[in-house]
Write a structure and sequence with these properties.
Helix 3 links the parallel strand 3 and strand 4. Helix 6 crosses helix 12 and helix 8 crosses helix 10. This protein is of the alpha/beta class. The strands form four sheets. Strands 11-12-17-16-15-18 form a six-stranded antiparallel β-barrel. Strands 2-1-3-4-5 form a five-stranded parallel sheet, with helices on both faces. The two termini are about 35 Å apart. About 40% of the residues lie in helices and about 20% in strands. The protein has two domains: about 170 residues, Rossmann fold (3-Layer(aba) Sandwich), CATH 3.40.50.10940; about 325 residues, L-fucose Isomerase, Chain A, domain 2 (3-Layer(aba) Sandwich). Bound molecules: manganese (II) ion. The site of manganese (II) ion (MN) has 5 residues, from loops.
């Protein structure tokens, strides 16, 4: 399900025709070596494609427009090897619509003290040329990433790799389609939002269907298909009968198998990549989708509970951004549930009624059947497990009425050594940065939701860069957060977004 194009990134070196052919030949050769190194590093998730050196307004404009038109191009990386008068870049930049990375590097790592002369200085002056380029991009108010450092440095290549994933998030955001088969939970504020504005800002298509439309797909799943999937479940997961009758248990599991198959068919036929449900609106379904939704999320679908389409789209987005990461630790819909307020060990138990993605599981998940304390349906089957330990980001997208705000909290999932035998849902236990007290205070001041899109495999920098590219506000809660500064930041941002609207 997590399909996206085989994207590439273009490498465009800026220069001018003032330096003569000899110099331009050297510039092109240096760019070729850098691109070759980047591609052979094995550290970049996507290929870099070398473009001819850009030396005038016409070639710059042509390059950016070709990048716009090429469906496989997810962004342009620019580097001014020499001085490249930036007025030449205005028209091209004005027409360019994809992610932009300004790599501020230099071919030589060290100053060649013994041989340096004016020829060398003129050929290797990105310290000079990249400032001219940076000026015009800033003056034009164009959002871009700037990465500084030698092109062989591991940290530079790592940051380029991270940026590429952000760029994929920018490119793929406008392909996200969310289906709502349940409206927002009655009376709830934070999961609401302006869907028109979301399509303008993020490109998300958010459509509503009657729950009965998708329930028809569930009802028409054959018994044979259900039985086959149930036996697959029994092969893949532990079964926690806990005193329930074996046959009755299996019948409950079969309901989720039917939901999984029916939902999957509906999503595929209608080309949706994320889904929301609401336990208040389940006409035609015998259980709240639990195990079924968990498995769809595992396959890359976005999910938001109680009609939360913003989080559903964010989960999908973050799954796309992390696609193909080696040893990925997982990405899930999540909810702040219960605190542990023991002094010095403060943490938040994360969970949901059912729907936590198994990609974050630390062990083989188990199937459990238990009553749902809310709603009026049968006891739903669900996967239970605890999460991996490690650092991640918890993201909440909220609608403040006049703008969207993305809140990004760095968190650390703790090992869950003490069993919770009566907890019938999957869970994580995390400590928000800088600590629970300041982290939660800042989160509440920012208006962050109880629902989050969580990932071990993305950084706050990547999420912030994505938000910047989308033109929305982003606030970080991390080791540097203090309440005094954070409150000021929110206050200043509110003015800034009033002016920029
Ligand atoms: Mn919820």
């Amino acid at each position: 399900m997590l399909t996206s194009k085989v994207y590439k990134f273009w490498f465009a070196t800026g220069s001018q025709d003032l330096y003569g052919d000899e110099c331009l030949k050297e510039v092109a050769e240096h760019s070729r070596i850098i691109v070759e190194h980047l591609n052979q590093s094995g550290k970049l998730p996507f290929e870099v494609v070398l473009k001819p050196t850009l030396i005038d307004s016409a070639s710059i404009r042509k390059c950016f427009n070709e990048a716009n038109a090429d469906e496989t191009c997810a962004g342009v990386i620019t580097w001014m090897h020499t001085f490249s008068p930036a007025k030449m870049w205005i028209l091209g930049l004005q027409e360019y619509r994809k992610p932009l990375l300004h790599l501020h590097t230099q071919f030589n790592r060290e100053i060649p003290y013994d041989t340096i002369d004016m020829d060398f200085m003129n050929t290797n002056q990105s310290a000079h040329g990249d400032r001219e380029f940076g000026h015009i991009v800033s003056r034009m108010g164009i959002e871009r990433k700037v990465i500084v450092g030698h092109w062989k440095d591991e940290q530079v290549v790592k940051r380029m790799a991270d940026w590429m994933r952000t760029a994929i998030g920018v490119m793929e955001s406008s392909h996200i389609r969310v289906v709502r088969v349940g409206d927002n939970m009655r009376d709830v504020a934070v999961t609401e939002g302006d869907k028109v504005e979301a399509e303008i800002k993020f490109g998300w298509e958010i459509d509503a269907y009657n729950i009965t439309d998708i329930a028809e797909y569930v009802q028409s799943v054959s018994k044979g298909d259900i039985d086959a999937l149930v036996s697959k479940y029994y092969d893949s997961y532990n079964i926690l009968l806990e005193g329930r009758d074996e046959e009755e248990f299996k019948k409950h599991v079969a309901v989720q198998a039917g939901i999984e198959i029916g939902f999957r068919r509906f999503l595929e036929e209608h080309n949706y990549h994320a889904i929301v449900t609401n336990f208040q609106m389940l006409s035609g379904l015998n259980q709240l989708p639990g195990l079924a939704i968990q498995r769809l999320m595992e396959d890359g679908y976005g999910f938001g509970a109680e009609g939360d389409w913003k989080t559903a789209a964010m989960v999908r987005l973050m799954k796309i951004m992390t696609k193909g990461i080696k040893n990925a630790k997982g990405t899930s819909f999540m909810e702040d549930y219960t605190y542990h307020l023991e002094l010095g060990k403060e943490a938040i138990l994360q969970s949901h009624m059912l729907e936590v993605c198994p990609t974050i599981a630390n062990e083989k998940p188990s199937i459990k059947v238990a009553p749902l304390s809310m709603g009026n349906r049968q006891d739903p089957a669900r996967l239970v497990f605890t999460s991996k330990a490690g650092k991640g980001v918890a993201c909440s997208l909220v609608d403040l009425g006049n703008r969207f705000r993305l809140i990004v909290n760095e968190v650390e999932c703790l090992p869950q050594d003490k069993p919770m035998p009566h907890l019938p849902v999957a869970s994580a236990l995390w400590k928000p940065e800088p600590n629970l007290i300041t982290g939660a205070e800042a989160w509440i001041l920012a208006g962050g939701a109880h629902h989050t899109a969580f990932s071990y495999d993305l950084t706050a920098e990547q999420m912030g860069d994505w938000a910047a590219a989308m033109g929305i506000e982003c606030v970080f809660i991390d080791k540097d957060t203090t309440i005094r500064n954070f409150k000021n930041e929110l206050r200043w941002n509110s003015i800034s977004y009033m002016l920029n609207r």
